[in-house]
């Protein structure tokens, strides 16, 4: 499975993946998913939001056990964030069939569309739409850097965008959703465990900062005459670091666009996107308010105008305790592992979105360097196999209850 997926959307220079929603690479990944489903005799379907499903048993029967993740990537992402969950889902099904398990309930594997939000700026578009956490009109207005809208992109990829929207009937068929994911930190490496269970996802959001100044000649404009938005932006980046450090949170400016973007021109516009996350809402509010206040002061000091727009926000997610405890019991019973570690994460996931509608849990697989959203992301084969076995044990346990 990995062999066929591996080359899709991989950039030859960086070695990273560029699998943006509804792009050629995404279409190829989707074809791969369909082939995996049909090759196993699973019933394949695409829901109204373009999420792909592969069913074993009757999808209408209800109380289904569902697993899966996403196949899209950030710019120059790693091989594991997303795909590990989907590949492990198919592998876990193979494992269970090998064990001769009789499934008392329908089982499904899902690939949620546009989890990373790399193209349209909003993460988890597929699951948000299905869970009713993204308005239809708002979704229709999402556009990429080339001005292509989400419906246009879906249509060009051969998917019908006319019916996007909440899908409560489909979600109501799910009794439990479990997403396996590569860990995006080093907690498991430090504790010496191959697999862990998620406790919570930090609240997180994205804010766009537009600093507007005045374009002018880089050689002839005296420093005192400039209204340079790059300066206020640069100072804001440092303020973000300071505020986050003081609060024990994280804040990142990882994307920027500059106009007119000329090496010999003072910029007229610097647009930077802030991603900030914290363990609790109050801390996140403190950090973002602090960054905004500092940004306004720096903008004033340089004669620059500033607009700040919150582009997305995801509240804290606390995964269901009963399901989490049940999964811990299953894993602790199936192996000689005395205690499966339970850990929180600052990364967003479709599981976090779904948890508002469906009992949801996550499994993490050890990542020895903790690196993610980078070509250097890695998980050892042994640990991936342990993840598959753990997922199979969990799915088996959940279909029996
Ligand atoms: C997605 O992986 C995110 O947490 O930004
Ligand atoms: Mn990711
Ligand atoms: Mn992911
Ligand atoms: Mn994610």
UniProtKB/TrEMBL annotation:
<dbReference type="GO" id="GO:0046872">
    <property type="term" value="F:metal ion binding"/>
</dbReference>
<dbReference type="InterPro" id="IPR002933">
    <property type="entry name" value="Peptidase_M20"/>
</dbReference>
<feature type="binding site">
    <location>
        <position position="116"/>
    </location>
    <ligand>
        <name>Zn(2+) 2</name>
    </ligand>
</feature>
<feature type="binding site">
    <location>
        <position position="181"/>
    </location>
    <ligand>
        <name>Zn(2+) 1</name>
    </ligand>
</feature>
<dbReference type="Pfam" id="PF01546">
    <property type="entry name" value="Peptidase_M20"/>
</dbReference>
<feature type="binding site">
    <location>
        <position position="81"/>
    </location>
    <ligand>
        <name>Zn(2+) 2</name>
    </ligand>
</feature>
<comment type="similarity">
    <text>Belongs to the peptidase M20 family.</text>
</comment>
<feature type="binding site">
    <location>
        <position position="373"/>
    </location>
    <ligand>
        <name>Zn(2+) 2</name>
    </ligand>
</feature>
<dbReference type="GO" id="GO:0016813">
    <property type="term" value="F:hydrolase activity, acting on carbon-nitrogen (but not peptide) bonds, in linear amidines"/>
</dbReference>
<protein>
    <submittedName>
        <fullName>Allantoate amidohydrolase</fullName>
    </submittedName>
</protein>
<keyword id="KW-0479">Metal-binding</keyword>
<dbReference type="InterPro" id="IPR010158">
    <property type="entry name" value="Amidase_Cbmase"/>
</dbReference>
<feature type="binding site">
    <location>
        <position position="264"/>
    </location>
    <ligand>
        <name>allantoate</name>
    </ligand>
</feature>
<feature type="binding site">
    <location>
        <position position="277"/>
    </location>
    <ligand>
        <name>allantoate</name>
    </ligand>
</feature>
<keyword id="KW-0862">Zinc</keyword>
<keyword id="KW-0378">Hydrolase</keyword>
<feature type="binding site">
    <location>
        <position position="70"/>
    </location>
    <ligand>
        <name>Zn(2+) 1</name>
    </ligand>
</feature>
<dbReference type="InterPro" id="IPR036264">
    <property type="entry name" value="Bact_exopeptidase_dim_dom"/>
</dbReference>
<feature type="binding site">
    <location>
        <position position="81"/>
    </location>
    <ligand>
        <name>Zn(2+) 1</name>
    </ligand>
</feature>
<feature type="binding site">
    <location>
        <position position="206"/>
    </location>
    <ligand>
        <name>allantoate</name>
    </ligand>
</feature>
């Amino acid at each position: 499975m990995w062999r066929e997926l591996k080359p899709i959307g991989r950039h030859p220079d960086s070695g990273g993946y560029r699998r943006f929603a509804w792009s050629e690479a995404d279409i190829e990944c989707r074809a791969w998913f369909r082939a995996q489903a049909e090759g196993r005799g699973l019933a394949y379907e695409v829901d109204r939001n373009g999420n792909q499903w592969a069913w074993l048993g009757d999808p209408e029967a209800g109380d289904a056990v569902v697993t899966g993740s996403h196949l899209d990537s950030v710019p120059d992402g790693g091989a594991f964030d997303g795909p590990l969950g989907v590949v492990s889902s198919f592998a876990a099904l193979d494992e269970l069939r090998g064990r001769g398990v009789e499934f008392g309930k329908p089982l499904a594997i899902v690939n949620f569309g546009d989890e990373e939000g790399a193209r349209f700026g909003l993460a988890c578009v597929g699951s948000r739409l299905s869970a009713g956490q993204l308005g239809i009109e708002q979704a229709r207005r999402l556009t990429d850097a080339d001005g292509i809208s989400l419906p246009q992109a879906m249509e060009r990829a051969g998917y019908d965008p006319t019916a996007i929207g909440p899908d409560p009937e489909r979600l109501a068929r799910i009794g439990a959703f479990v997403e396996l994911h590569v860990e995006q930190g080093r907690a498991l490496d430090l504790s010496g465990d191959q697999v862990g269970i998620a406790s919570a996802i930090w609240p997180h959001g994205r804010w766009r900062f537009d600093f507007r100044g005045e374009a002018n000649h880089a050689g002839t404009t005296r420093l005192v005459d400039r209204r340079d938005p790059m300066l206020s932006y640069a100072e804001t980046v440092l303020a973000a670091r300071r505020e986050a450090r003081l609060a024990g949170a994280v804040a990142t400016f990882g994307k920027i666009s500059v106009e007119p973007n000329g090496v010999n021109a003072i910029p007229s516009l610097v647009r930077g996107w802030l991603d900030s996350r914290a363990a609790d809402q109050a801390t996140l509010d403190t950090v973002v308010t602090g960054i905004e206040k500092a940004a306004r002061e720096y903008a004033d000091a340089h004669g620059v105008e500033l607009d700040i727009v919150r582009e997305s926000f995801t509240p804290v997610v606390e995964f269901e305790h009963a399901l989490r405890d049940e999964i811990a019991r299953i894993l602790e019973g199936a192996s000689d592992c005395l205690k499966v570690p339970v850990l929180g994460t600052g990364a967003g996931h479709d599981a976090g979105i779904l948890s508002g509608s469906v009992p949801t849990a996550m499994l993490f697989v050890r990542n020895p360097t903790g690196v993610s959203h980078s070509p250097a992301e890695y998980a050892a084969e042994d640990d991936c196999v342990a993840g598959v076995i753990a997922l199979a044990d969990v799915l088996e346990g959940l279909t029996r209850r």
